[in-house]
Amino acid sequence: MSAGRRGLGGGLLRFNGAVVLAFLYAPIILLVVFSFSASRLPGQWGGFTTEWYQTLFDDSRIQRTIWVSLRVALVSTVISTVLGTMSALALERFRFRGRRVFDALLYLPIIIPDVTMAVMMLMFFTQAFDLLEVVFGLGLSKGFATIIVSHVAFNIAFVSVVVRARVAGMDATLEQAAADLYASRWQTFRYVTLPLIAPGVLGGALLAITLSLDDVVVTQFVAGPGSTTLPVYVFSLIRKGVTPTINAVSVIMLVASLILVAGSVALQRASAARGRQRLQTTGGIQ
Questions:
Q1: pTM for this structure?
Q2: Gyration radius from the chain CA atoms
């Protein structure tokens, strides 16, 4: 009876795993398949064709929005990764006045709805531009810079959460040992702390670039003429009817994301292998 129950339980677990995998990956498979459909309806199969990929590379508007999205994602990811890592280290390694308040405010972008964040950023830029025009006579407007600032504003929180989890799991005595060996704060950070938290930093950066590439609500509120990103452009096409070109764009973005993830995993494995080799060379492993 017990063996039969174990067999039934194993079968149910395998069935549950298959359902979960189908739920997660069936939409992705359908997206890839219908990106090669000859029909002009995104969800209808009309024979195999690569026409939509050719249209993608010939459409200057889509190319421009992809370029804007990539620039925004890269710049905002670099800034938010640096600031998020610094915030995580400050909150986890130091005690200072107002730390609890700073901790609570840092994670507000994770809690509040996207539309609230969008309205907040829009009001901030409107008031800031009006003030700069009155005081300095600068006539600024929404555009590339406002999108970057907005993305950094909500990405810092996500990066900080990931990096802080990594810092919390790190042995603090390693940093103390480096200080005992007369290493400066910068040397300790560069040669001890940063290599240990590198997987967390890289994970936070990948999360930030993904959120930046996917954002629609906040970007739509703070974007200006000539600074439309790909998600906002795709969202605007819904009113006029979406063609399988959008499927082709999504597949390309998916492939790019997979390349980023594969590169991240490869770098982490290479780093771990170098660490084990270094320990063996120095006699750390007997």
A1: 0.80
A2: 24
